[in-house]
Amino acid sequence: MEVQSSNNGGHSSFSSFSVYLNSLSVTPSRLARRAISVSTSSDEMSRVRAVSGEQMRRTLRWYDLIGLGIGGMVGAGVFVTTGRASRLYAGPSIVVSYAIAGLCALLSAFCYTEFAVHLPVAGGAFSYIRITFGEFPAFFTGANLIMDYVMSNAAVSRSFTAYLGTAFGISTSKWRFVVSGLPNGFNEIDPVAVLVVLAITVIICCSTRESSKVNMIMTAFHIAFIFFVIVMGFLKGNPKNLSLPAKPEHPSGFFPFGAAGVFNGAAMVYLSYIGYDAVSTMAEEVQNPVKDIPVGVSGSVAIVTVLYCLMAVSMSMLLPYDLIDPEAPFSAAFRGSDGWEWVTKVVGIGASFGILTSLLVAMLGQARYMCVIGRSRVVPVWFAQIHPNTSTPVNASTFLGIFTAALALFTDLNVLLNLVSIGTLFVFYMVANALIFRRYVPIGPTKPWPTLSFLTLFSITSLVFTLIWKLAPQGNLKAFMLGSCAVVAIAIVLIFHCVVPQANKPELWGVPFMPWTPCVSIFLNIFLLGSLDAPSYVRFGFFSGLIVLVYLFYGVHASSDAEANGSFGVKDGHVLKELTEV
C-alpha cells in the first residue's frame, strides 16, 4: 500500500535533526512551489485517495444524507436562537427571517453540492479548495474548520449535561464536580460529557452505515419532540400575539422592526442552518453521488426550513414578542402555567436528542476532514489510514474524539450550541469563491486575473456594505450608502457575467443562475462574518497563527517530500535534487 511505501522509503526531511534544520533553510523555495500548488480531480479520486490504503464503503443513500443533514442542523441551539432573534430583532416576523435564511442556506448548499457531485471524496471543503486555490489555502481553511468542530463539539457535549438535568429535574451541579486547584473556567469536571463524546467516537469508528442508523433513530425522536412543542404552541397560543405586543409602548404589527429587523433576524438565525457542510464529507461513502447528494443536501435544508418556520410561528403565538425569554423561549413560556410545567421537561428531552445528533454528525465530518488532510501529507499520513474491517478513518476519529473529550472534561466553553463561529463561515465564503473560479477560469496555463479581480472587488464591496450596516448611524445617509453599495455590487456581477464567459460547465450537476447564486453566498457570509464578536476574531487569529506555523515547520516539508518521492505523480527531478542536497 502507498501508506507503507511512503513511510518506509524515499527521501524525508525528518530523517534526522540536522536534515530537518537544513530543510528549514529551503522553506522559502518550497513555499513558492507548494503553497499554491493545485491538485486535480482525477488525482484526488485515484492517487490521493489510495494513500488511505483501504477504501471507504459506499453504503449511504439519499435518505441517509437527509437524516444526517437534519441531525447536523437541528441542534438544541434552535431553542435559543429563535427566542433571541424574535425578542431582539424581528418580533413575530421571525418566521420570514427563517424563510430568508433558509433560502440563503440552500444557495450556499448548492455550491457544496456541485463540488461534491463532481468530486465525491471525503475531504469536503478542503478538497474543493485544494483543486482550486492550492495546498496552503486548503489547509488553512480545513484546519480552522476542524478546530471549530472540536471546540463546538466540546461545548455541545457539556451542554448535554445541562439539558439532561433539565429533563430529569436535576441541577447541573449534581452531574459535575469542582476541583479547587484548577483556575476558573477549567475547574468544573464533567464526566458525563466525556462519556458522551467517547461513546459517539466508538460508534463512528465501527461503521458509517451504523452511525447513520443511530442518527436516524435519534433524529426521529428529536423531530417528534419538536413537532410536539409546535403543536403545544398552536394549542396554547393566541393568534393576537402575532401582531400585538404585551406593552403598548412597544412597536406593534407583524413587522414591528421593519425590513431591517427581518434581515438582522435572518443573519442571526442563519447560523441555525450550519451543519449541512458535514454531509458533503460523506460523498465518498454515497452509492450514487450524482443523484443522492443533491437530494440529500437540498432536501435536508428544505425540511429544516419548514421545521424552523413552524417553530417560529408556534413560539410567536405562545407569547407577545416582548415577553419572550431570549435564553429559553419555549421552556419559559410554559414555566409557571398551571398544568403545563411538564412541557419544560419535554423540551429538555428533545434538546438532549438534538445535542446527540448534531454531535454525531459533526464528529463524522471532522474525522473525514482530518483523514483527507492526511492524504495530502500536510499532516502525518497516519491520520489518512482507513481500517480494513470497518472502512472508517479510525485513527482520525479516535484522535479527534480523545482531543474533544479532553476539552469537554475541563473547559467551560462559552460557545452557543449550534453556533459554529468564524471558521465555518470563512470556509463557506471560500467554497463559493472556489466555485466561481473553477467555472470561469480555463484549465491549464491561463491568466486568472479577470476572475480574481472580480472576486476581490465583489468581496470588498460586500465588506463595505457590511461595515456601513453595522457602524453607520440610522438615517437617510446610511440608506443612500447602502443603496449605492448594492448598486455597485450588482453592476460588478453584471459586468463580469457579460464580459467573462464560463470556461468549465459541469457535466453532471451544476449550480443554477451562475454567477448570481455563489455571489449571494459570498455576500451573506461576509455579512455574517461582520456580525461576529471580537472574541471570535481573537480565537480565529490565534488558531490561524498556529496553523501557519504547523504548515511552515511541518506541512510544506512533508508535502515536498511526497512530491519528490512521486506520491503526487511522476517524481519531480528538481525537488529530488534539492532533497538530495539537503
Automatic annotation (TrEMBL):
One of the GO BP terms on file: response to nematode
A GO CC term attached to the entry: plasma membrane
Record-annotated Cationic amino acid transporter C-terminal domain positions: 509-559
Membrane topology note: Multi-pass membrane protein
Signal sequence, start to end: none
Annotated localization: Membrane
InterPro entries per the UniProt record, alphabetical: AA/rel_permease1, CAT_C
Key words of the record: Membrane, Transmembrane, Transmembrane helix
Superkingdom: Eukaryota
Transmembrane segments: 62-82, 94-115, 127-147, 159-177, 189-207, 214-235, 255-276, 297-319, 346-371, 392-410, 416-437, 449-471, 477-496, 508-530, 536-554
UniProt GO MF annotations: amino acid transmembrane transporter activity
Any single Pfam family the record assigns to this protein: AA_permease_C
Family assignment from sequence similarity: Belongs to the amino acid-polyamine-organocation (APC) superfamily. Cationic amino acid transporter (CAT) (TC 2.A.3.3) family.
Name of the molecule in the record: Cationic amino acid transporter C-terminal domain-containing protein
